[in-house]
Design a protein that fits this description.
This protein has 350 residues and is α+β, with helices and mostly antiparallel strands. The chain contains seven helices and 19 strands. An eight-stranded mixed sheet has the order 2-3-15-12-17-10-7-4. A five-stranded mixed sheet has the order 1-14-13-16-11, with no helix packed on it.
């Protein structure tokens, strides 16, 4: 990625600032009580913290989350080994419009190319999904993972780590449900045939970090994201109070959690999916591993009945998650002349 191709260059108003605000406010929540105690007041305290973080930031960090450090070190290791290979080797597992798992290095966010390369794999093998985004097309297809030959241990480590992520995601969804006044297991049923996936991100050093972004500004379309980032940092969150971009400081062994669009709709806007982006730098490469917790393709996403009433009517029409994700994937491959599908397209006007 030597000279910067114009495809990477952000419009002036979206270019990153070289001096940045370090995000002091992004809450850091210690989850140890939910694993170790029947102390009701400690768990109630965590539920309250999670609810406040979802309302005020849409983001929070968790420590003592129950994922063994060695599992995280192992997956970091295979990710680095995979990306260290030649482009020719990595492209042997290149993603295509048919096979959406695997390696990819020309992803676009909001029609500008991202300064990164990725490797994706789904949790359910195979993952069932609609063939097309067209509403009347009822045909389904399968997403199958494509696993590289090297490193040979990658597949097993990825599958194990995926199960750890699912376990943590269910715990977090229980805390979010309780914070909304719902039964802890309220969301479990939506994820029976989940369409969740994990992504390895590699952001090489960029000669012009003031012009490009590792990932352009975006909101996550799914339910919940659990991010492992390395010590280099680069994730920026748009602060709700003033719209400023705030850098999330890496905390050793923490995960960064953010609420996706689906939780915004389920909660009827009580919790908000917040815009974020990744900045790059000219000296150091950066690695991160997000897990995207997504429901079954047949889920019709709409505000939960328990959270709507005459005073607070539903703010969204129901939409098909399968069609939404199929549409989103399509825009990663081709520059569309229209804006990518967004949840506000389903908003009921007041």
């Amino acid at each position: 990625m030597g000279e910067v191709d114009p495809a990477f260059i952000q419009e002036p108003e979206h270019r990153p600032r070289i001096s940045y605000i370090e995000g002091e406010g992004v809450p850091l929540i210690d989850l140890s009580p939910i694993f170790s105690s029947d102390n009701v007041s400690a768990i109630e305290g965590i539920v309250k913290e999670v609810g406040n973080a979802c309302k005020e930031w849409g983001f929070f960090q968790v420590i003592n989350h129950g994922v063994p450090l060695e599992k995280r070190q192992k997956i970091d290791g295979v990710s680095k080994k995979f990306f260290a290979q030649s482009l020719e080797e990595k492209r042997k597992v290149r993603r295509s419009e048919k096979e959406v798992s695997g390696y990819y290095d020309t992803e676009h966010t909001k029609n500008v190319r991202d300064w990164k390369e990725v490797f994706d794999f789904t949790i359910q093998e195979p993952t069932i999904i609609p063939v097309s985004h067209e509403p009347d097309d009822k045909e389904l297809t399968q997403w199958n993972n494509v696993w590289p030959e090297y490193p040979p241990e990658l597949r097993e480590i990825c599958q194990e780590y995926g199960q750890d992520m699912v376990k943590l995601a269910y715990k977090l969804m229980e805390l979010i449900a309780l914070s909304l006044g719902l039964p802890a297991d309220k969301f479990h049923g939506f994820f029976k045939d989940q369409t969740s996936f994990i992504r390895f991100n590699h952001y090489p050093p960029c000669p012009t970090p003031e012009l490009a972004l590792g990932v352009g500004r975006h909101k996550d379309g799914g339910a919940l994201t659990i991010l492992a980032q390395d010590e280099v940092g680069g994730l920026e969150v748009k602060r709700k109070t003033d719209g400023e971009w705030v850098r999330v400081k890496p905390t050793p062994d923490a995960y960064i959690i953010n609420v996706g669009d689906i939780i915004q709709v389920w909660s009827n806007d009580k919790y908000e999916s917040v815009e974020h982006r990744v900045v790059v730098n000219s000296e150091r490469e950066r690695f991160s591993i997000p897990f995207f917790f997504n429901p079954a393709h047949y889920t019709m996403v709409k505000p939960l009945e328990e959270l709507t009433n005459e005073q607070n009517p539903a703010k969204y029409r129901a939409y098909s998650w399968g069609k939404f994700i199929t549409n989103r994937k399509r825009s990663n491959f081709q520059k569309l002349n229209v804006e990518n599908v967004q949840i506000y397209h389903f908003r009921i006007s007041d």
